[in-house]
Amino acid sequence: MSYNQQKTISCQRYTSVPGSPYNISTDNKGVLKAVLHGAYSFNNQTNDAFLFKPSAIEKAERQLVKGFKYILEVDLSRTVCLKKGHKEADLANCKFQPDGLLQQTFHCDFEVWTMPWLRFMKTTYFVCSPSDRPSTSS
To answer: What is the DSSP code (8-state) at residue 40?
Structure first.
């Protein structure tokens, strides 16, 4: 194999365009922070009496911009924690609603922009619609 053939093969390995979104693990620390931030935004925008928290992360992408933009597909499910008098930082301690009338899940698309060196995070876009999927974890 000649030098030119090796060069062509190594260039073909990279399929994403610089600056375009790329898939990232749903377990990534930055993804998890962005998902929580999106959940806080959702909770601040709803009139529901209960807090919602992530029950599933379906898809996560990251884009290098001035910082990072996380593009997320997330399921948010209603918890047993009432909004009134509850600190959202305690979402980890909130259990999901049991099977019944109060159980509800939304499928959401979020975009969260972060500049970690400035400790800045902002939900720039979210759209949620009711889902028929029940929450699956506690």
So the answer is: H
Compute how many other C-beta atoms are within 10 angstroms of the C-beta atom of residue 121: 20
SS3 62: strand
What pTM did the predictor assign?
0.81
Residue 60 has pLDDT above 80, yes or no: yes
Amino acid present at 124: T
**CA-to-CA distance for 51 and 130, rounded, in angstroms?**
15
Ranges of H-type helices in 13-116:
29-45
Cα 29 from Cα 37, distance rounded (Å): 13
Q: Which helix (H) or strand (E) holds 10?
A: helix 3-12
C-alpha pair distances (Å), 129 with each of 71, 84, 106, 114, 132: 17, 24, 5, 25, 10
Angle CA 87–92–95, to nearest 5: 100
β-pair partners for 66: none
